[in-house]
Amino acid sequence: MEARGHAAGERARSPLGRLPAWALALGALAAIAAILALLAALGSESLPDRSGPPIEELAVERTELSPNRIDLTLRNTGPDPVEIGQVFVNDAFVDFTAGERRVGRLDATTLSLVYPWQEGQPYAISLVTSTGAVIESEIAAAAETPRADAGFFGLMTLLGTYVGIVPVLLGMLLLPALRRSGERWIRVVMALTVGLLGFLALDGTLEGLELAGRSGGAFGGVEVVFVGAAVAFLGLMGLDRYLTRRRGDAAAAGATANRLALMVAIGIGLHNLGEGLAIGSAYAVGELALGAFLVVGFAIHNTTEGVAIVAPLARERPSFAGLAGLGLIAGAPAIAGAVIGASVTSPELSALLLGVGVGAIAQVIVQIAPSVRDAAGRLLDAATATAMAAGALALYATGLLVSV
Is there a contact between 231 and 359 (Cβ–Cβ < 8 Å)? Predict the structure, then answer.
């Protein structure tokens, strides 16, 4: 006992023992940063130069077609700078202008090619570097790129309205009918929704991986899909736990039903922001079938969100304006997400946003799953398993109709 007390006294009398933990952490981080900077400076001088030809790698991140013009957004994904010398389209030399002919590591530039392309025709583009290396890119079927004008963003606003505001408001109308339905039918409807969203999560993951694989991997490639999914899932789960605790504290303090409904609407609105991001990014990169999948799946789910919002108001008589306001708080963030997602031009950032959508879907499934359980705690029985399978098959059949 005396030895331990003596040791504690020695630590208290030492200079470090009197510093708070955050100061010690900052000091350690500063020392680590200084040592790493010194190592980088000394290493560049002490290590020999690399022998052999330069490693030149370029990824075509985006191709935009306008009349008599092809614009290529290029990013250097290799370790050495790359200088563009010549460009060929279908083996024909073409004139081009570039923001920067010499592209450093991870830097990007835009090449503007003067070429009279024809709609629907395939084109092979060859980029010849200053060292003679050839980098190939293909256009499977030429078509003019939609402009990000007021009409395009108006479409994103319309999609966000379809996915967010309209379904939530419709869900509010279902409360009287659901209150009179039997518990078994409610479980079947929830199981159907789980099947729909489960298929969306799988399809969104596959699409995100395919898109990230075409990006060149400058910022991680397919890993960004899983990073986006993990961040969205953990962030939304943390938010859900926080709001659940706040709702419990508010109820214990005697908060009004209107306040509880508002807190639910805010939580759902933040969730719908991620859904809008996934939809907008799907359309921005031309994945129209995936966008339609997301619209159908999220709209079905968001109808149930309307029920969650009005549940605290079951014994109240809220005004029409109050209900409309709650619906806008919960659904309008989907519009903002769709506009932001449609503005993204980087394939890897689009893949990240698709991963965010997958994570949002997974979090929704986790939220819905408890409502599928029966009185004995079973998640699956004949009715719920059939409903889940029917939901997945329904979206598969829808995909056959809307795929491009």
Answer: yes
